[in-house]
Amino acid sequence: MTTNIADAFDLVGKRWALQVVRELALGPQRYTDLLRRLAGISTNVLAARLLELQQAEVARRRLLPPPAGSALYELTERGRELGLIVLALDGWGTRTLQQPHESRSELARANGSRAVSAPDSPPIDGEPSPASRTSSSWSRR
After folding, report:
1. CATH number for the domain harbouring residue 73
2. pTM of the model
3. What gap in Å lies between CA 72 and CA 80, rounded to an integer?
């Protein structure tokens, strides 16, 4: 038996899904606009995420009347509810995870935990950077 949160993560936990929802939460987008705004996403992944979001009734494809003749992707009512959550998560990430490393380290110490640095960020709390680790598990093959 699955839980509702597991079902939700099955949809939004896929690669690029949250970013697609975030972009659509900002307003309707054409496919080409989404490709441009989501730098690095491949066309097949974007098409797959849009199809999955449509099947889950989170997004819909709306054809524009001539002379435009193009299609827009937009969130449904269900999708707008998810969009609010995704935008809130995006804001939280911006406020919390984009803080200077010292602030995150101080916050972690205040909470009794260790701060963890991202792979491409400077070390926190005197930990060696991932690039300086010599263990074979950290080396490229």
Report:
1. 1.10.10.10
2. 0.67
3. 15
